[in-house]
Amino acid sequence: MSRVSDATAALIEERVVWLDSEMEAAIASASPDLELYRWARYHLGWHSQKLEPLSAADRRKHGGKRLRGVLTLLAAEGVGGDGPAAAAGGAAVEFIHNFSLVHDDVEDNDEERRHRPTVWKLWGIPHAINVGSNMQALVDIALLRLADRYPAERVVSAFRTLTHATLRMTEGQFLDMSAENSTEVTVERYFRMTGGKTAALIEGALRLGGQLGGAALDRAERLAEFGRHFGLAFQCCDDYLGMWGRTEVTGKPVAADLIQGKRSLPMVHALVSAPADTGAGARLRTALAERDVPAADGLMRELGTPTWVLERAEEHTRLALESLTAAELAEPFGGAIRDIAQYALQRDS
Question: What would the pLDDT profile of 232-265 be if each residue is shown by its tens digit?
């Protein structure tokens, strides 16, 4: 599957417009004369490096997929809710995702994102940290806009869901950074990390969609379970590509995670499978410490790591789609979510 269906693509494009409109409204309610917000718009894909507005086509090219926000709206509509009314919630989800990316770029010293210089690379680390922190405040601004459309208790639930998701996301980021260069790793700790860093926000986005759409508690939980397993499967795929993806497709060096000392799933599996007191384990630890990609790659292949990682992705994909089926979403929204999930989990970049 190389792309989503035309019907799903049309649904996505319509909802991206709703999301961007809500995100623009949240920014406009602040102090839009400040250059701070032009830098934010640059990161969001709306402005060029010269801080000039981009065309609609270029905004889509540089603005990312808006995946999490789109899933929020499709979930709300799938349980009978109104998509445009829920768009402020989806905008809040996107602000969370994007503030984390601005901070991630600083933490990982990444100079490019979406094939453009990162915020810190252009305007410095202090300003980048502030752009990210300001975008985190815009999460609340966006959520408060729900108060014009929903009863107070539903708005409070939205705040609770996304606050918890943000907490778990930053806990996962802590675990990820703490594990760098470590040889004391476990598969359980890895999935705790990715369950926070990657899956928590997708889980929260689907739960939020169910809540805003008026779903019963158990139905909203099925959506959250889909989001959780989809997020875990997504990270398994991402980790596979981070080790074995093709540079011309991913835009990243081969084995980028290994070079950075990350303990992504391939490294975790290999370290657990080859204890330090074995010959293979000693060679693996030396290869990782020295960033010897060919040696580490060869040892991982001997240990069956590529196949094992893909099996974990397939396992969480299956669990995600089972939960989605159990949520019994109306069409075309349920089918669109399934289409997006299957596309995202079969990507090569």
Answer: 999 999 999 999 988 777 667 789 889 989 999 9
In a domain, 151, yes or no: yes
Q: What pLDDT, in 10s, does the model give residues 256-293? A: 889 989 999 999 999 999 999 999 999 999 999 999 99
Distance in angstroms (rounded) separating the CA atoms of residues 288 and 82: 50
- Is pLDDT above 50 for 1? no
- Residue 95 backbone zone (phi > 0: left; psi -120 to 50: alpha; other: beta): alpha
List CB contacts of 321: < 8 A, sequence separation 6 or more.
226, 338, 341
- Cβ partners under 8 Å of residue 226, min gap 6: 206, 320, 321, 323, 324, 327, 337, 341
Does residue 120 sit within a domain? Answer: yes
pTM of the shown model: 0.95
Q: Is pLDDT above 50 for 306?
A: yes
Structural domain count of the chain: 1
Task: Identify the domain containing residue 336 by its residue range.
Answer: 6-344
Which of 136, 68, 129, 137 has its CA nearest to residue 104? 129
**Which of 76-96 are b and which e, b meaning 16 or more Cβ less than 10 Å from the residue's Cβ?**
bbbbebebebbbbbbbbbbbb
Smallest Cα–Cα separation from 212: which of 138, 268, 145, 309?
145
For residue 65, is it within any domain?
yes
Taking the C-alpha atoms of residue 231 and residue 67, their distance in angstroms, rounded to an integer, is 11
Task: Say if 349 falls within a structural domain.
Answer: no
- Give the per-residue pLDDT at 2: 52
Question: Can you tell me the distance from the alpha carbon of 219 to that of 222, in angstroms, rounded to the nearest whole number?
Answer: 5
Give the CA diameter of the chain. 64
CA proximity to 316, closest of 253, 224, 200, 234? 234
Predicted pLDDT of residue 245: 86
| CATH code of residue 171 | 1.10.600.10
